Amino acid sequence: FQYLKRFEQGCDLATFWYEALSVEGSPAECLQLFLLHCGIVDPSWAELRNFTWFLNVQLRDCEASVFCNPDFVKDTLKGF
Known about the structure:
- This is RN213 ligase.
- By secondary structure, this protein is an all-alpha fold.
- Helices cover 52% and strands 0% of the residues.
- The model has no long low-confidence stretch (mean pLDDT 86).
């Protein structure tokens, strides 16, 4: 949710890191963003769960990768 919220606001996600145990927005706002970005017109709860699980895994791996760390790559991969 934190990434999707910042993406909607046009923030630079390359320098953002997930803040564990941080509460942002309301449950309704969270659900609205998931529905907007999941890519399915009328998703089931299972499809929403799979979307959020997959997104979470990908973002966690991205944060853990040295190649996605802006301090390591500097501006060599700008826009990648």
